[in-house]
Design brief:
With 178 residues, this protein is of the alpha+beta class. It contains 2 helices and 11 strands. Strand 4 and strand 5 form a beta hairpin.
């Protein structure tokens, strides 16, 4: 009988073990993932165009002004609506005299690597020491470039009071939420 109970115990044990190992029901559990894209905004000036040099070298340029277009001058990335603002740090400073900075115009246009489909407003402005909006976009852009034309108006009226000189100011472009 002892052998019978031992054999019965062994059979029951094997049955319970096998039902746990081979008869298990597969279990599942889930996880939810969420990601957040924050307000990402970036603005870069084309590195080869950090210095914009406009020269007035002849009578026609003195009377009519002078322009220089910088292709793909501004590169923008934004995850939401944005605007680009421009401001001059000062009037155009020479060694001994100044010329009003509003004699320089900024004229934006769409650059080469831009996608067309978003509503974008481009606003030419005369430079100022106050911030002004030159570009408004009503959606985000992964990568968009803008050409910028710099135009000096006629400087004929400044000839008598301003000697031949290099007149400078710093222009700052910034990207802000629209």
């Amino acid at each position: 009988m002892n052998l019978f109970l031992k054999s019965l115990g062994l059979i029951v044990g094997l049955f319970l073990f096998s039902s746990q190992v081979f008869g298990q029901v597969q279990q599942k559990d889930e996880v939810e993932i969420s990601t957040y894209i924050g307000d990402v905004r970036s603005i870069k000036i084309n590195q080869s165009q950090f210095n914009v040099n406009l020269s007035i070298d002849n009578l026609a340029q003195l009377m009519n002004g002078q322009s220089l277009t910088q292709p793909n001058h501004i590169q923008v990335t934004s995850t939401s609506e944005y605007q680009i603002e421009v401001v001059a740090s000062s009037e155009l400073q020479g060694k001994t005299t100044t010329i009003p900075v509003n004699t320089v115009s900024i004229i934006p246009s769409l650059g080469k690597s831009s996608t067309y489909g978003n509503t974008i407003y481009l606003s030419p402005v005369s430079l100022s020491t106050n911030e002004q909006s030159i570009i408004q976009s009503f959606s985000g852009d992964v990568l968009r470039t803008f050409d910028v034309s710099y135009h000096i108006s006629s400087w004929a009226k400044y000839v008598n009071d301003n000697p031949s000189d290099t007149y400078r100011t710093t222009i700052t472009y910034s990207i802000v939420a629209n």
